[in-house]
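Structure in, sequence out. Go:
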């Protein structure tokens, strides 16, 4: 299965912001990315498996387990569909911060791409970091945290 946004051109379009998601706090980075998208910028987030959720692993895992069990009462094929890949979880988090039912929000979501790892067109482009969302600058050194990649791995 191809990651969302994998059909981008072989060259990176101009005015594309590439963000290295490794060691960034999940929700804070999603909020920053949502704002960039609504301003009209194209955003690519790489290394989504390295995104960080604050709190102990077990608590975060139980939250996602409860979320994954929510389904249609009579026919689960009708949805809701819960993707387990870190990039899809990140896109879903950004979607909650964007008015995606409006034309403006739908076009903003089209400008977002998220990947696990660093796919070929973006490995030659300089990736940025967001200091407002970096774990080392935002989380207390003693506080527990876990990575989205581990949660996705354990939940299949």
């Amino acid at each position: 299965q191809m990651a969302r946004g994998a059909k981008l051109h072989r060259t990176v379009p101009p005015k594309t912001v590439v963000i290295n998601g490794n060691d960034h706090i999940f929700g804070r980075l999603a909020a920053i990315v949502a704002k960039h998208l609504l301003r009209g910028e194209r955003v690519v987030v790489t290394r989504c498996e390295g995104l960080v959720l604050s709190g102990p692993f077990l608590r975060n895992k139980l939250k996602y387990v409860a979320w994954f069990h929510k389904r249609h009462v009579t026919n689960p094929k009708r949805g809701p569909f819960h993707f387990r890949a870190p990039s899809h979880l990140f896109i879903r988090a950004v979607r909650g911060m964007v008015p995606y039912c409006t034309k403006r929000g739908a076009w903003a979501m089209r400008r977002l791409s998220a990947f696990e790892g660093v796919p070929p067109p973006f490995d030659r482009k300089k990736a940025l970091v967001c200091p407002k969302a970096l774990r080392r600058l935002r989380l207390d050194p003693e506080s527990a945290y876990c990575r989205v990649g581990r949660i996705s791995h354990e939940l299949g």
